[in-house]
Design a protein that fits this description.
By secondary structure, the protein is an alpha+beta fold. 47% of the residues lie in helices and 22% in strands. It has a five-stranded antiparallel sheet with strand order 1-5-4-3-2. Residues 172-195 are annotated as: Disordered.
């Protein structure tokens, strides 16, 4: 009976400890802003692949910008650093990204979120002192608040359908018979243009 009472007490104590232990959001780190800033401006992005270049710049105090540039992509992610709710020993990080890649089209939101998730894993690894792990990208970023970009499959499909409808309308418009006057105007324009 004493064993059961002891186990019950331990379970209650563990539950209370869990409830009352200081739980911080995933985008808060146990270091002051200046330390986080120094770590994020000196990040090692690893070896470049193809023509893609990655750089890190800062404003000198509380904002770091990570850029990815290549012949078909241009993205910039701003990492804004601030003390967490008045606690100067902790840093709250907000990540906002802009830009995109050629050919993303209807999947632009999905591509945005995949890139932002990668940035979150890289900064989390840097600020917690561990190696970047591409296998952890989804699990790390899933604990962070969204930046409001809808990267869902459903949105990508509906955008693709809308783009397809617009292309079909343009094609149909281009196949419409034109009046003799429109044809003559087009011929005159081509003549004067040297064609």
């Amino acid at each position: 009976m004493n064993i059961l009472a002891g186990a019950g007490f331990a379970a209650v104590a563990a539950g209370l400890l869990y409830v009352f232990v200081d739980q911080k959001p995933a985008d808060v780190y146990d270091m002051p802003v200046d330390q986080a800033y120094g770590l994020l401006t000196s990040v090692d992005f690893g070896e470049s692949k193809g023509d893609v270049m990655r750089t890190s710049t800062g404003n000198g105090s509380n904002k770091v910008t990570w850029r990815t540039r290549g012949s078909h992509v241009g993205r910039a992610c701003d990492l804004a650093l601030a003390p967490f709710e008045g606690d100067a020993a902790r840093t709250h990080v907000t990540v906002t990204c802009q830009g995109g890649g050629a050919g993303e089209g209807a999947a632009a939101g999905m591509a945005h979120n995949m890139h932002r998730d990668n940035v979150i894993e890289r900064l989390d690894a840097r600020l917690t002192g561990r190696a970047f792990d591409s296998a952890r990208v989804g699990s790390t970023a899933s604990r962070w608040p969204s930046d409001g970009v809808d990267g869902s499959y459903g949105t990508a499909v509906s955008k693709a359908i809308e783009m397809d409808r617009e292309v079909r309308e343009m094609q149909a418009e281009s196949r419409k018979p034109r009046s003799a006057e429109e044809i003559q105007d087009a011929q005159m324009d081509a003549f004067y243009a040297g064609g």
